[in-house]
Amino acid sequence: MNAMTVGFATGTDTEEKVRTDEKTDLDQPWVVVVWNDPVNLMSYVSYVFQSYFGYSEAKARTLMLEVHEEGRSAVVSGTREKVEQDTVALHSYGLWATFEKAGSE
User: Fold this and answer.
1) Greater confidence, 22 or 46?
2) pLDDT of 16 over the 70 cut
3) How far apart are CA 40 and CA 72, in angstroms?
4) What is the CA radius of gyration of the chain?
5) Which range marks the domain in which residue 92 is found?
6) Is the pLDDT of residue 82 over 50?
7) What kind and span of H or E run contains 82?
8) Number of domains, the chain
9) Integer CA distances (angstroms), 97 to 13, 20, 29, 38, 72, in order
């Protein structure tokens, strides 16, 4: 989805059409990445995914195993503001989490 703005800038006696086809950072999808750590039990990580995100036991387990086996997992996506909130919330649970633009893995 490409945002396009068409506007008019008025000068002394001319009008000039201005077009913008650029996406802003806020338009880009972002993801929350949970990282493997030596502190939290796998069952606890799965519990957090179920409690905070409302994921099913199966989905939470799949994401937890990805964190454990691959060292990281993109667990949720959304706007930058939303993923910032989710990252802070995961920190409050004691998980190691960051956020990044989707596709920058």
Assistant:
1) 46
2) no
3) 14
4) 20
5) 25-101
6) yes
7) helix 80-92
8) 1
9) 55, 34, 17, 14, 9
Q: How many CB atoms lie within 10 A of CB 47?
A: 16
CB 69 within 8 A of CB 62: no
Considering the entire predicted model, what is its pTM? 0.73
Q: Which amino acid does the sequence have at 39?
A: V
Tell me, yes or no, whether 93 lies in a domain.
yes
Residue 66 pLDDT greater than 90, yes or no: yes
Residue 19 in any domain: the answer is no
Least confident of 10-14, 16-20, 50-54, 78-82: 16-20
According to DSSP, the β-strands at 15-20 and 5-10 are antiparallel
Backbone angles phi, psi at 63, to 5 degrees: -65, -40
Provide the token pair at 71.
């060292």
Q: Is 41 within the bounds of a domain? A: yes
Rounded Cα distance, 15 and 72, in Å: 52
Q: How confident is the model at residue 100 (pLDDT cuts 50, 70, 90)?
A: very high
